[in-house]
Amino acid sequence: MERGIRYCRVNAFCTLLLVLFAWVPVTKTVITCRSCHLLDKWSGREILVRMDSGVDFGKVGDKNGDGSTALFNSAGAETGQPDCGATDNCEHAHSVRKRNTDRLRSEKMPLDDKRKSMRSYGKVYILKRPGSQGSAPGEPHHRVRRSTQGPGSPPSARSLPAFGNSTAQSARRVPRSDLRWNREERRTATSRQEELKLTSSTFALTGDSAHNQAMVHWSGQNSSVILMLTKLYDFNLGSVTESSLWRSTDYGTTYEKLNEKVGVKTILSYLYVSPNNKRKIMLLTDPEVESSLLISSDEGATYQKYRLNFYILSLLFHPEQEDWILAYGHDQKLYSSVEFGRRWQLVHERVAPNRFYWSKLGLDKEPGLIHLETKALYVTCKLQNCTDANKGKPFPGYIDPNSLVVQDEYVFVQVSTGGRPIYYVSSRRDVFTPMKLPKYTLPKDLHVISTDENRVVAAVQEWNQNDTYNLYVSEAGGIYYTLALENVMSSMGPEGNVMIDLYEVAGIKGMFLANKKQNNEVKTYITYNKGRDWRLLQAPSGDLRGNRIHCMLPYCSLHLHLQVSANPYTSGNIASRESAPGIIVASGSIGAELTSSNVSMFITSDAGNTWRQIFDEEYSVLYLDQGGALVAIRHTPLPIRHLWLSFDEGRLWNKYSFTSSPLFVDGVLGEPGEETLIMTIFGHVSHRSEWQLVKIDFRSIFNRRCIESDYVPWDLHDQGERCLMGVKRVYRKLKPIARCVMGKTYSVTMISEPCDCTESDFECDYGFERRADGKCTPAFWFLPSSMSRTCTTEHTFLNSTGYRKVVSNNCTGGVMEQFTARRQPCPSQAPRGLHLVTSEGKLTATTASNVTFLVFLEEGDGSKTSITVDFGDGNAFTYSNVSSIEDGIKHIYKNVGIYRVSATAENTLGSETVLLFLHITCQLESIHLSAPFVAVKNKEVNLTAVLSPSQVGTVTYIWWFGNNSEPVITLEGSVAFTFSREGISVVTVQVSGGNTILQDRKTVAVHEYFRSHLLAFSSNLDDHNPDVAEWRLDVSRVIKTSMVQVMNPEQLLVTVLPGLPTAAEFFLLPDKQLTEGKPDKTGNSELVLSALNQNLVQFTLRPGVQITVYAAHLSAAPLVDTSENHSGSAMLMLLSVVVVGLAVFLIYKFKRYCHPFLKIQRGS
């Protein structure tokens, strides 16, 4: 949902935070200080710090190349969107967090966002100061599903960006104890007089005190270069008005201002880095001023400017090719560059936002292939040659808008049929198959959480859930799903995406933490075997004071907040590292359930078996030296000058000063790479001061390099059980007493020994459920014999035992043979479970279009079962086996109608037939409502809707009469209606056919008495008759004007009839003042007819075109009296004779006494 930007009140002491966003400027995220108010007269301060590691934190498909140059979304920066590219709505947090829970369905993001998800590999950190225009409401509630990874680690499917160094906690009232040293400070090993100091240097960004945003790029990996882009974002104008570019070549000790190199008047808005070559930098100018790119190939030392002819909303870098980039424009056009942005080429138009993906090596046929969604179709396209001839269509038919997800070896789409979504998956680019969830799951919502290690983890909100989701896991094909954990907590991110409380621990394969709702209480559970078994966390045995904690399972346990920073160089509410297996630091509480009050910091060094309390309030904890040391910075709105260090896995903490004067800390950025011995703290000494960049070098506190004797072996176990995921694992860890630098050459060493398989290595197979005794039995809805469905295309099938081995479990022997499915020959059986559908899931199609029918057979020997399809139009085809029609059966219908389509499967043991009724229509082009111009009161009239073309298939007619609010709905194009009141009535008809609705409207004059006569015209009028309604109305008005000279205009109505030759009808109404509403017995009608019969009435259609109007004597009803005193053909005949005689008399009289108002044309 949209949120407004708020100014932070300076004295509110809002803690600003550093947030990493994958390079996806986001649509709906607005980061705001939760305790800020709109009273601050100063503009906010924010730093968008940018970092580059090899980690990919993008959306769900990022693992195939969606890098993230994390864009900064400062609280207000994102509705105003300096970070999102001067947008009104941003999408950083949305796209990045969504990586964890990427919906197959559209997120319904508005397209008017000026800058939507910026996707690239560079990491961007968002830093904010008190007084910032806002921060994301409810920040502590952001859920990130995966621990941060170090450089080079594979991108995580759940790496959702969280808020920077965990300083994202909202400002709060400071207790008196906070004004003194806290308990941890009193525990320090030194006194204040003997204060330990860190080697540090401070640099102020002079002249940028007004700038309220910054983006930082630190290449790391043996590079000393740091780039910082600071900006002044005007929240009133909604654009960047100033910018400065700074560069350091000495790890941040000093910085040089580069404004003259990029152009003094140039205003920069974004900073990008190639994920494959950190020396290549891209700067994007503010499009409100100019649309250009500045490109550097020497780590930002020099730049070249290139003009753009489109407005970039998002970028996607190729995962291997450093110069290949996809750019999404504001007009839904996708562009590509193979020269790192120097030249661009249009790839495709009308592409769905954020639904485009690079190909994956080893899965796609070529590296330059692009997967994209356009006009509700999934297509593949060649990078430099995206023509219709070269497009692929992997999914046969339309998909739901914004539902394409390409992640690792899987592709997901969604198709809604009958109001219920059907989710399809393709594994290794094979054919699409419906995802098989337990039969009565009936999902309201589904998100792909992970596709790691050849299996899919999906979060499904079922029909009876509101704020929780169930976790389901698949087999390697991603088709069959079983339940892993019920009622996992969820929350809504600030940009509207769903956040699932699931955390994957780094460094320990198969280990997860999750917050589950049970009896209205939220509890934290842990698993060591990918969700096969879960248990509560054992609380610490004692607190910081040494007092014993009485907490007995299952009534009392430890519960953790699982908000994570996707920034690998700062800490969230929970953190772990690949290089430090078994060490987890998190904030949480002890008791019956998870609470937000009395939050403390806890640590485990044995992978969750035992926990220790390390602080009794919230701290940001970061890993130094690949986890060999820990750094803690306190969450406080007050200025600080100290941080805490531990060299023994959090058992003892020492206090160090990092600056001589207290600093309001806005965020912390560590050197890229796991080593992280250099750190920069961003802050300010006052609310109006320049940015203060404090560089801290921790190398001086280590006295030597680690040697082999500094390490000890550590056995991974779960409460004593060493066989986890089928192996015994022994890690090498640093001794708690060792105070040495492990360095960049350190690598995690693990010795693994396979275990014999036991029942705990197997989970329940699809269709089976675990009982209380741990056994897997068939669900009530499941028929085990149905698993032989592969027999429809193969000769053998896997006969399930009710169990399947947990994915990535490496056990051997033991009960393996007993629990593993056995391949058996397909049994001979009659066909059963035949399905016939169209590829688009619809029951309608248009003439002359290809209709693709799909035929599925659940049971039966497909190789020996023939399929006969009768299309219902006299054509039928027989296929020898099921495998021959896997790609569908195409057919073209030439005529409109409803066709009975049947499919029959038959073998020697029996047959089965299924029917489908298909509506074939053609496009409805126009509609004409045929209705009388004048109707008699209380007499039924016929109204007809005339369609073009006349045969369009099944249509529905909706009629409105007069002021009636309720319509009349018919399947016929004609209705009879009686008007009960005199006056003008409007008749409206709508025709609905297929996806088309057309309408026509007519006005009917209703009178109790009137007389009518047909009119004819000189033939030259036909040459100027376009036969359109507007022309007929205009000519009717002209004819009436030429005739009203003989009578009261209120008594005369004229209408020109459709078609050729041109004809019209005039109606004479009684003068109610003279006749009291009765039929006119005066000679008005006779006078008019006499003039018409003498061809005396004319009008000018255009200069030189004179039209003569005369009475049509051959009319079927030349003159009609609607009074009830006369009726029948005899009366009409008599009336005709009288009229003729009267006309002769009138002509004679008119020759003698001309009517003063009638223009008479005398013959020659």
Automatic annotation (TrEMBL):
| GO BP | post-Golgi vesicle-mediated transport
Determine if Hydrolase is one of this entry's keywords: no
Which is an annotated Pfam family here? PKD
Q: Which residues form the signal peptide?
A: 1-29
**PKD domain boundaries:** 854-913
Name one cellular component (GO) term: Golgi apparatus
UniProt main location, coarse? membrane
Positions of transmembrane segments: 1130-1148
**PROSITE patterns (UniProt xref):** PKD
Query: Topology with regard to the membrane?
Result: Single-pass type I membrane protein
Q: Region (Disordered) spans which residues?
A: 71-195
Q: Where is the composition biased (Basic and acidic residues)?
A: 89-115, 175-195
Which PANTHER family does the record associate with it?
SORTILIN RELATED (PTHR12106), VPS10 DOMAIN-CONTAINING RECEPTOR SORCS1 (PTHR12106:SF8)
Q: What is this protein called?
A: VPS10 domain-containing receptor SorCS2
From what organism does this protein derive? Answer: Cyprinus carpio
Q: What is the lineage of its organism?
A: Eukaryota, Metazoa, Chordata, Craniata, Vertebrata
